[in-house]
């Protein structure tokens, strides 16, 4: 029974030692741009399911509360103090080379002592697959090996300790081994020491032939050898005392899953570092419009280059001498941005813009020109598009700078209408069409972000509207110039945006839209017997405040 009890006790001791040695923290790595290498290293160790890894920012946050950053956060004295608070047995740290081609890794035990180093090749700042395997195997082996000496150290220590049992009289141990019982002088000298060791003598259950020798190993077994190294002489006592008082906060805030898989909800600080789910813009828009229609040619400039006697048929010109001013409302909804899958980039973009202005209209014919008249015109733009974006972070751990690049697919509408109907038809156009596009946003700093977009309109023919054609007036937008029409259009945007305070920011951009309508067949207007062309463009400036959550 006693032998089985010893075996059970030994097994319990070994399992407790191995379980205690399985918690690892990864500190911030020098030269790691956007902490991508640290995230990869944490994921590799978790996938092994052989160690428990704290969330990536756990060690950095704990050190930051003591105002320690960079190399100071992995100083041996700092590791010896922080490791017990976070209940970790090893800390992985290191640095990436200046060219991001090598990774020098170091493993520190809970006492701050270096137990392993290694150097690995990087590709684009990350470990390639073959290097990742070597790195993972080496770190796991080093973590397990760093704990084995702690379990095997106590048995061999009592044997050499007999020679160091009495360090005060240095020459005494050698003669004490040769004559253990014949010489009384060592025993007499040893009796001077029992005054200091005398309280430990009642603990001896099996007295050995030499009473002085067993007492010496007991005196050495009580204080472990690494303990003097663990507590170096350091002076930041007030800061560490404050950490001891707050130590309970680290365990609740930074406690991770500890397994070989990431936490379901992420770390406590990840939510603030992810892209926003919703972004809304409320601002003003000013628009300039230009329209021209020419018969028998493929462009307005070609018709204007003809001799006066060759310019036959009715033409239409429209220019706005003052911009249309109005409101613009936009919304971007990406509900899955906090998801780790590719679906995080799926979202919806919505937009609505409406401007009003007094416009001067004049229609020219070979007989003459109509007098200029001022009418009230409205310009309306709207659209809804499905979007997919790839988000990237160009900031730091403390200040994320999110950018994106993506594609869009949806439907857009552009309608220019006049409130007053004149005797001569006006260039009123209603368009509703499918569109595809690209958009990109590159952050330079928190307050400045460059944004650009491009869109291609598929068959943006006039005479189409989301609201339908109840009175039949939309048909005249085509029949005046021909039997059928084929249109093509595009748009380009360029602007700047940024964050101002909290969720609030700003956005300002310039947008140019261009349409070209090619008519075929005979129209109702004079001179439009075969074909013709109409060109339309909108130049807009949209600026306003944004809010993101």
Keywords:
549 residues, alpha+beta, 14 helices, 36% strand
Explained architecture:
With 549 residues, this protein is α+β, with helices and mostly antiparallel strands. It is built from 14 helices and 16 strands. The strands form 2 sheets. Strands 6, 7, 8, 9, 10, 11, 12, 13, 14, 15 and 16 form an 11-stranded antiparallel β-sheet that branches. Helix 1 (2-20) packs across helix 5 (129-152) and helix 2 (36-48) crosses helix 5 (129-152). The longest helix is centred in the N-terminal third of the chain and has 24 residues, at 129-152.
Topology:
Blueprint: H1 2-20, E1 23-26, H2 36-48, E2 52-53, H3 58-64, H4 76-86, E3 90-96, E4 102-109, E5 114-121, H5 129-152, H6 158-161, H7 173-177, H8 184-190, H9 194-197, H10 212-221, H11 227-230, H12 237-253, E6 278-295, H13 300-304, E7 315-319, E8 324-333, E9 346-364, E10 373-393, E11 402-418, E12 429-445, E13 448-458, H14 476-479, E14 484-501, E15 504-520, E16 531-548
Principal-axis shape = elongated
Given as residue ranges, the uncertain stretches (5+ residues, pLDDT < 50) are: 14-21, 160-222, 225-271
Mean pLDDT: 77
Give the class from helix and strand content and strand pairing. Answer: alpha+beta
Number of strands: 16
Summarize the structure.
By secondary structure, this protein is an alpha+beta fold.
